[in-house]
Design a protein that fits this description.
The chain has helices at 5-25, 34-58, 73-107, 115-140, 165-189, 198-234, 241-244, 247-265, 268-272, 292-297; strands at 2-4, 63-66, 69-72, 157-159, 162-163, 239-240. By secondary structure, it is mainly alpha-helical. The protein folds into two domains: 2-161, no CATH class; 165-297, no CATH class. The chain starts with a strand and ends with a helix.
Length: 298
């Protein structure tokens, strides 16, 4: 799809504003998880991209000399397409790494002494992901930029690729969440027969309790976003690749991954005794309530 350069600038500017607003809102715990560190790096990359595109577009001569290399409006389209492809490729690796990070946080409560080491690891993994993805897109993939044949002075529109990874990721995670809920419900249905083991019964009820509370907390905060994703699934409309990866999407992904991990692992006894840590989340209040009887059994 051909998009005018001013429209691209408007989209990038709005994306940068949204990115930094959400980063500052989460400043108290932005460096306590992989997704927080990656969100900061994404905001920096988007800001650099917006500044470069703006400089090339508003320059009166239509080009800028940088280290004896002439940058023109061709490079606006080239940069937008390359970074859009990088953002699309990054979607699944970010999901996998963030899920592992959340799982380790929930199942093994990290000590304060490991906080600095955790930040270093997150920064290293973030830089490694950006580097490997850029190498893959530029050298190993079959990605081919689409550029106009006109002179750089006459270029006013760029071809923009669309991304479908957001819908793929959200659909996969929501299906996983649904399967975890069905699994907990099916275990509860089996309890209609007299149980042979009281401890197994308590564990099953605790599992159902965690799944129910986790899904309730998630839906209270992100119900409208789920409706928006459902509309995107039904309508034949695409998301521009250069806008697909943003901090708002990462915040939604953070809450969704926390819900999936809690429903899949269901650390009921750890949560009841305060031995399980929930990853930082600025949009969902992950507070679980358990009955005294359940806590005693746990």
């Amino acid at each position: 799809m051909n998009v005018s350069i001013p429209s691209i600038l408007l989209g990038l500017g709005g994306k940068c504003l949204l990115n930094w607003t959400l980063v500052f809102l989460q400043s108290n715990h932005i460096c306590k998880s992989f997704l927080g560190v990656f969100s900061m790096s994404l905001a920096v990359v988007d800001t650099a991209q917006t500044l470069v595109v703006s400089t090339l577009h508003i320059h009166a001569d239509g080009y800028v000399l940088l280290l004896d290399f002439m940058l023109t409006r061709y490079h606006i389209c080239l940069l937008v397409q390359i970074l859009g492809q990088v953002y699309s490729v990054l979607q699944w690796p970010v999901v996998v790494v963030a899920a592992l990070d959340h799982f380790c946080t929930v199942m093994w409560r990290l000590q304060p002494t490991t906080a600095r080491a955790r930040v270093i690891v997150c920064v290293f993994v973030t830089g490694l992901l950006w580097y490997l993805t850029a190498v893959y897109v530029l050298l190993l993939s079959d990605f081919t930029p689409v550029l106009e044949d006109d002179s750089y002075n006459q270029i006013h529109r760029c071809w923009v690729f669309h991304t479908s990874q957001i819908l793929q990721v959200s659909t996969c995670l929501l299906l996983t969440l649904g399967c975890a809920a069905l699994h907990a419900g099916s275990n509860t249905q089996l309890l209609k027969n007299p149980p042979l083991n009281v401890q197994t019964t308590d564990q099953t009820h605790s599992r159902r309790n965690v799944v129910h509370q986790a899904m309730h907390i998630f839906l209270n905060s992100w119900a409208l976003s789920l409706v928006f994703l459902a509309v995107l699934l039904l309508l034949p409309m695409g998301i521009p690749a250069y806008l697909g990866l943003n901090v708002a999407w990462l915040c939604f992904l953070n809450s969704l991954l926390i819900t999936v991990v809690l429903c899949a692992a269901c650390p009921a006894s750890q949560l009841a005794q305060g031995l399980a840590a929930v990853p930082p989340d600025s949009f969902c209040k992950w507070r679980f309530k358990f009955s005294l009887a359940t806590e005693d059994r746990a």
